[in-house]
Amino acid sequence: MPATMLDGRALAQELRQEAEAAIVELTAKLTRAPSLVVVQVGDDPASTRYVRTIGRLCKNVGVTFQLELLPNDAPQADLIGTLTHLNQQPDVDGILIQMPLPGHLDATSAILALDHRKDVDGVHPINAGLLAQGQPAIVPNTPAGGMELLRRNGITLRGKRAAVVGRSAIVGRPMAQLLVQADATVTICHSRTNDLGSVLRECEIVCVAAGRPGLITAAMIKPGATVVDFGTNVCDDGSLVGDVDFASVAEIAAAITPVPGGTGPVTNMMLLKNLVTAASARLKA
Ligand code: NDP
């Protein structure tokens, strides 16, 4: 029987309405709109498109948005100086460093320069460490969105065997930590995993963030499993596909996220949620 679709577009609408309500409440408490600053270095077209989308979203939901655009050849000191300045501004609630940075810049030290309380992307090692310890943390948007898709579709995680394919700091690792927090038993797979299929076939939950179109086939999936595909791969014809061979896996899984329309639309809504969390926490501090 074909799988149930885990519909990211519908969930994104729901999350957006919740964020809007939270932003109205927060605006009253702060006596100003919550604010997000994106720091972008250079004019990479994909980054510019993404930042524009974020800016539009913020405007539409009542968040003050500011872009700090640094030239492509900006030295590391200028980037750090900008972040340090933003950290100190009381009316800046969230800061996002647009990645990737140009090759001459060191992303690790830029992230370390962020005030972790304003790190709405959840990339600062303090947030990653808190998450790893099972403590409240600002969690990267993409895996946080994956968890919302699972939870709000009533997928049971407690006691289930789960696998995450991918171990990046922004998707795979935090997703694994979140699944552990939800009482799943989790295996992290990566490019050196031997016989990926034999690991995945043991699992009722499979989350994939590898950036390899068609990596996951029906033969690797346990019948009745839930499959979350974070993969975002642009084909030669411009179409978007995930890491999962959707047509065949949808025949065997119980539930699956489509690409597009699955994890992608939820991600930006989680950014708003993180901004609300960050601003609320600073209000209480
Ligand atoms: P990275 O390239 O940082 O990480 C990819 C991970 O996949 C690595 O851990 C790598 O292993 C693993 N991997 C690669 N090939 C294989 C393989 N053949 N078998 C098993 N594991 C493999 O990517 P990201 O985590 O940043 O992104 C992953 C995907 O998610 C991309 O398609 C990206 O576009 C997408 N993405 C989607 C978002 C969304 O909102 N839906 C947001 C962010 C990313 P190793 O560590 O050994 O190299």
From TrEMBL:
* Keywords tagged on the record: Amino-acid biosynthesis, Histidine biosynthesis, Hydrolase, Methionine biosynthesis, Multifunctional enzyme, NADP, One-carbon metabolism, Oxidoreductase, Purine biosynthesis
Q: Does the keyword Amino-acid biosynthesis apply?
A: yes
Give the CC-aspect GO terms: cytosol
Query: Part of which pathway?
Result: One-carbon metabolism; tetrahydrofolate interconversion
Domain Tetrahydrofolate dehydrogenase/cyclohydrolase catalytic per the UniProt entry, residue ranges: 6-121
Question: Out of the domains of life, which is the source?
Answer: Bacteria
Keyword Secreted in annotation? no
Q: What does this protein do?
A: Catalyzes the oxidation of 5,10-methylenetetrahydrofolate to 5,10-methenyltetrahydrofolate and then the hydrolysis of 5,10-methenyltetrahydrofolate to 10-formyltetrahydrofolate.
Subunit structure and binding partners: Homodimer.
Q: What is the name of the protein in this document?
A: Bifunctional protein FolD
